[in-house]
Model the fold of this input.
Amino acid sequence: MEPRVEPRREKTVSVLVVNDQSLQRLALRVLLTAEPGLTVVGEAADGDEAVRASAALRPDVVVMDSTPSRADAIDTIRRITRPPHPAGPTHPARTPGLPGEEPFATRVLVLTAADREADAWAALRAGAAGFLLDDADPAELTAAIRVVATGDAVITPGLTRALIDAVRQQHTVRPLPRTSGIGTLTQRERDVLIAVASGWTNAEIAQWLSIAPTTVKTHVSNVLGKIGARARVQAVTFAYESGLIRPAA
Done:
């Protein structure tokens, strides 16, 4: 008698919805609750409420509207993605995982208006893991939530252009502290970081370097750990800020 093989069940992604409009929160809850594999664990109407709910519920993804207040949105992203540890940096609540990754880290997906694309740079530096325009269709939103939940990045083409434009407008590259990790990267890790910052997938990097995709994943994890980033999207901003990549004029 052959052993019975149980079908593999995908992990349910928990979502916290943040929006200052009650009707929009309700619409998002109804939409996401109806989607297989997604569950809405809570709602918040403002930044402070979002931070408290995120700390209490520990959702995989926070879907946040950035329209009401840019400053509040940036601060909220920073407080959600970089929560203070009660006992300081060595607080043991988080179980170690892969280098550069936090197993229980909450990812923030920002919904932004078309005329606010330039805010992407500040939000990325604050810790956001993805961006969608607020007129995205339901399929785009649910797909983006799933991608962000895995620790990868989602940035629309328009927002990518705005990000590059923001880098081009900087007169100088902001110097990074000695502890930034750039000096600890091997040449192969620098190559991988440059490829990641250029938008290449693991498969494309593997083909370019003639190595296995699993090896690329290991390199990416090592890079994230050394530069203090938690996701690829933060590695992109690091590559530009460190001067490792300079956009063409």
